[in-house]
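look at this one:
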Amino acid sequence: MACWNKTPNFALTQNTNSMKSEIILYDNYYLYLEAFPCFLDKNGFSEIYNYKSTVEFSEIENLVTKDSSVVIMNIAAVSINDAMEVVEKLLSLNEHLKIMILSPNAEVRNIKKFFDKGVKSFLTKHTHGPEFLDALKEVMEGKVYISEETKNSLYNFICNIDDQADKKSNGIEDLTSREIDVLHQICEGLRSKEIAERLFISKHTVESHRRNIMMKLDVHNSSMLVKFAMDNRLVN
């Protein structure tokens, strides 16, 4: 089984058949770069692809040519902003390049940004060998690969954004703290006079708050108001 030359070079290469497409590998450890091609060879990729590799993050773009097909980057030791900047540079050099990110940082906002930049796959520290091979094959076919872990995280993230947007659009965000206090009392079944006594405000002020609450939430009576509050978990 062919593996890397054990002598550390600035940019390691293997299988120099110019007719083959290229897989470019980046990691900040030579040891991983020596092991990775062995793993790819074992699974038949050396029959179709040449390998290039570097431990210098700033040199990845220098390895990209028209024959480059896939870039696999382990960005564990790289800042997110620097990684995104390199993604943009690589795609400007070769718009057909397929980029896979390996990272222990699974912060969903960053994952989404990478996909927005054009990355084809984002894999976390929980990715095992068979899943990586599935991801690589999907990416090589021009598809986007999202692991179940990443998919669930993105789904929950998007749903939370939608929930926040719904809350803002349905008027909840417009309620003042005093209006929320009055709303809680209404939901307890108290009348305006009782609410006024409990909150040490006038009955007229309570009625004014009630009208404002209904207008902001677009409801037309106390029953609808209580139902809205319960449906949106404004009261227990």
